[in-house]
Amino acid sequence: MALFHRWDARAVVDEVRRRRAAAPSLPEIPRPPRLDGDPRRPVNELRDPRGPRHRGSRGDRRDVARRSRQEREDDVLVLLGVFRVASRRSVVERCFDGHPFAANRTLASLRKRGLVDVHTVERGRYGYQVFALSGTGRDLAARRLRKRRAAADARADPLLEQEQRLWQGMGDARQLEHDHNVVEAVLQDAEPALASGARIRRVRLESELRGFLAAADDAGRRRGGPAEARRERARSAQSIGLRVFAEGVPLPDALVELEYPDGTRTVRGIEVATGKYTSRQMAQKREAGFRVYGLQGFRGERGRKRYGTLNKDVEFPLDWGGGR
User: Fold this and answer.
1) Range of the domain at 129
2) Can you tell me whether residue 124 is helix, strand or coil?
3) Helices 182-195 & 88-95, crossing angle to 10 degrees?
4) Is residue 54 part of a domain?
5) Which pTM value belongs to this model?
6) Helix locations, the chain, DSSP H
7) For 159-214, what is each residue's pLDDT tens digit?
């Protein structure tokens, strides 16, 4: 008895051909014609003829005016110059409409040209990157911003005032996890006003406010001693919209000046709270008139022990709590 059966290849091929010939033929399914009249390449009638929309965008990119790569690069330089440091996610969302590939290509080009510095924030297993302008990048951002102001009559987006300070460098590396969220807090807070036609005239970070009040304090001290220094410091703080208390002048993370279409101006103090804020500190921030934004809490007992929990007194939580 044979253990294996030897197949005749010729017989197998003939049997397959016979069965195919005996099978009933299926009716031909008509294909929809192409919109351009070319029947050689049919298309699905349900497919949008304008092409697929990028899944990373926040809205329909076809309804938004197309912007050149140069304009988006200018947006990145101005964003980093105004807020000093921003995460990759902020750059993607604010300058590229949620398009990560174009953002990564532009950031790589800026780094290669020495215009942008990068730093990795250690958080979790992998961390995330934050970006800041170099000295050369700051000079280029200033020139681009002056050029945009000169052509402001031909543009619809809001432009900053000439007094706006542009920053370079990362600042304190220990505060990067906090500092890169200031840009999101400011822009999220200003979104309703910007949608109504307002524009951001100026953004003063806490470092600039400290220097401004220190200069006023020194000028008053030279004129009339410590008492005159306190009075001059209080006058300078009130002139830019800060509240003065007996124990001093509280400073926000960012002081934002908005201008509405009717010409009225308002000043908002933006504070980014961390899990280390106490209820007393939160009450002091509210008393100073600041709009407090807090990072979303980390899930799990391990995350709470390492990073701290979100204070429940925070009224305006950020839409997202990290910089990936």
Assistant:
1) 67-176
2) coil
3) 20
4) no
5) 0.71
6) 9-22, 69-83, 88-95, 100-112, 135-150, 176-179, 182-195, 206-239, 279-287, 301-307
7) 677 788 999 988 877 788 888 889 988 998 898 898 888 889 999 999 999 999 99
